Amino acid sequence: MFTGILPKGTTTVLEKIAPLIRQWGFYLAGGSGLALQLGHRISEDLDLFSIKPFNSAKLYFTLQTKAATLEEILTEENTLLLIMDNVKLSFFYYPVPLLFEPLIFEGIEVADWQDIIAEKFKTIAQRGSKKDFYDLFETFYSSKLSIQDAVSIFRKRFENTGINFYHVLKSLTYFVTTQLLLFHTHFESTKNL
Question: How far is CA 42 from CA 6, 10, 30, 193, in A?
């Protein structure tokens, strides 16, 4: 794992909440989970997922006991977004099983990078931020995975979810046609997205 991709504050928060993450059955994914495995960029926030429903208010209350500061952004059923000690945390109920065995980092499960890339496809179709495109670009550019293999993993992971594959793949064409050539040129300036 490329531990240097997490700023000190993020590492400190992760250490504080690691026992809770395990206890509540969450795993780390998103940009931080991917960057820990690829080492391609700095990632400051933590996206945590559970395949089991959870009580958001109870989780918030439990996190209060670990935090110096805690700012609630959004609390909904099975969703909690907050800032703990200046680090953005997202907790989601996500009933889509992982395809690959998770890795262990600091005692918590981290989704395999291939599962995260499949998730990035879906994320790009929903909101498509620069860092999501950059994550895909780095995966393909480093020859970790071909676009065809990534699409195959995406389809397999989300085949029973009712997701509109056409919409997701159409969203990716914007990435391929407008962003792919620009990312490598601007690698240094976008490294800290």
Answer: 6, 11, 12, 7
Helix (H, G, I), strand (E, B) or coil at 58: helix
Task: Please count the other Cβ atoms lying within 10 Å of the Cβ belonging to residue 8.
Answer: 7
What percent of the chain has pLDDT above 90?
65
Domain boundaries, the chain: 3-190
Strand, coil or helix: 84 = strand
**Alpha helix locations (H) across the chain?**
8-24, 30-38, 56-64, 113-126, 130-141, 147-158, 165-174, 180-185, 187-190
Q: How far is CA 177 from CA 153, 164, 180, 183, in A?
A: 22, 21, 7, 12
Grade residue 7 by pLDDT with cuts at 50, 70 and 90: very high
CATH architecture assigned to 3-190: 2-Layer Sandwich (3.30)
Q: How many CA atoms lie within 13 A of 171 on its CB side?
A: 19
Read off the pLDDT of residues 15-64 as tens digits, 9 standing for 90 and up. 999 999 999 999 999 999 999 999 999 999 999 999 999 999 999 999 99
What value does the CA radius of gyration of the chain take, rounded to a whole number of Å? 17
